[in-house]
Amino acid sequence: MARNFRFCILFLGLFNLVFCEVFGQTKESVSVQVPSKAITMNEPFVISIVFSSPNASSDLVPGYRFPEIPNLKKQGISRSKSTNMVNGQFIQSLTFSQYYEVPAIGNLAIPTLEVEAGQQTLQIEAFTLAVSPSTLESEEIEEAQSIPTELNGKANQPFFIVSTDLTRPFLGQGFTLKMSFFVPESNALALEFDQNDVQIPQLIQQIKPRNCWEENFGLSSERILKVSIKGKSYTEYRFFQASYFPLDSRAIQIPALRFRVLQLQSKSLEKKALFFFSSPFIIQPKILPQHPLSGRVPVGNFQLVEKITTENPFTGQIIEYSPSLVGDGNSILWDSKRVDSDYFLDFSTLSTSTSIAPFREKMFGNKTEIIQVIPKQPGKFVLGKYFQWIYFNVKTEKFDTLRSKLTLLVAGKSSDNKLNTLQREGDLYRGIELKDTLDVVWGRWVNWRQVVNLILMGMGAVIVYLVWKRPK
């Protein structure tokens, strides 16, 4: 008997293991996507890998490798994370997107590509990439830190620089570091890079702040740009770019760097080493004003983008409200909105997604949620009373709040046929669903039971008193 019992336990254990393994794997998926095959010259070409799994853990990052595409240069990789409900189960999606710089306008033939994603190799069939002209042809550099002071006397010479867009960011506010080599169009020197695959990583390690959260632009090779500085044309070779978010108020020291290039001698054909030096500087984060939420909310410039299926629903109708918080701050600090349902509206979160990607000179974040709303009572409901997002506004240098600007005009009958708020939502009705029903309705057995209990307690007190007063 015991032997049979142990056999059954072993069989059930093996069955459960196989069941979980098989069905768990079938729920995991990986796919490769090409969002657009028609872009403009100032837009990157993008390939995305999407890992989907019911496992909510994000500790393990799957391995991946994007292909090298002839005539296209890799720029950087962005990542995003989202959670969606599918068939009553939350599915987590992790997306990695590789950006490519296109060389010219026209139709580019893209061959069959192979993308490594986890343990799989996925193929993208050959296609034609259509690249149309763009209105932006060059960049104008205006930041004070991007122009070295010694450039005034050496306007026609190359220079090497490490720059930042902010030297006094607020604690938690993002600043962007760039490391570039500029060559003027009028340059007469024959220059070539000297072992950049070795010296660039070493230089990057010297300037990386240790007390910051990093969002890297992922430049795997130099990015070549045509720029204009004070009306003069330059070619910029950008080797590194990343946004950093200070975690404390300690000063960030950016040291002077020495960059080595080779100059080809015209007569002897020998190569001579030339050294260019960047200027050191200090980034000093500023303390946020005293506030209960200091250090727990995003810092930056944000705006709220709202979408809703309809602003004029009927009671009981299912609608979807989608708020997106977009800005140059650290969007991972946005809390998911867990709005409690009340007597008038029922809320439930269907999906949440967070993405961060480079856009021009900054790293921009996007936090988007899809929230299901079911009106239970007719009336006028201002969603700003339910949805607010607090952040520190670096422009006003104050804590600010983004509020929903949408208003629901709900028609139909009350869900309980006892209350009609068709005219408007008033303070009279607010919180009525939390009111104790014993204070509203008397004719219930619970109230009579309380009366009987009070009578019995009174009688008990009288008996105790009479016993105490009895003559001894």
Provide tags for this entry.
472 residues, mainly beta, Immunoglobulin-like, 3 domains, eight-stranded antiparallel β-sheet, six-stranded mixed β-sheet, 3 helices, 30 strands
Description:
The chain has helices spanning 2-27, 196-207, 445-469; strands at residues 29-33, 38-40, 45-53, 64-65, 73-86, 89-101, 106-110, 113-117, 120-124, 127-132, 139-140, 159-164, 175-184, 191-193, 212-216, 223-229, 232-246, 252-254, 258-264, 271-277, 281-283, 299-300, 302-308, 319-327, 345-359, 362-375, 379-382, 388-393, 398-403, 407-410. It has an eight-stranded antiparallel sheet. Strands 11, 12, 13, 15, 16 and 17 form a six-stranded mixed sheet that branches. Strands 2-10-7 form a three-stranded mixed sheet, with no helix packed on it. The protein has three domains: 22-135, Immunoglobulin-like; 138-287, no CATH class; 299-437. It is elongated, with a radius of gyration of 32 Å. Strand 28 and strand 29 (398-403) form a beta hairpin. It starts with a helix and ends with a helix. With 472 residues, it is mainly beta.
Short description:
The chain is mainly beta and 472 residues long. The protein is 13% helix and 43% strand. The protein contains three helices and 30 strands.
Outline the secondary-structure elements.
Elements: H1 2-27, E1 29-33, E2 38-40, E3 45-53, E4 64-65, E5 73-86, E6 89-101, E7 106-110, E8 113-117, E9 120-124, E10 127-132, E11 139-140, E12 159-164, E13 175-184, E14 191-193, H2 196-207, E15 212-216, E16 223-229, E17 232-246, E18 252-254, E19 258-264, E20 271-277, E21 281-283, E22 299-300, E23 302-308, E24 319-327, E25 345-359, E26 362-375, E27 379-382, E28 388-393, E29 398-403, E30 407-410, H3 445-469
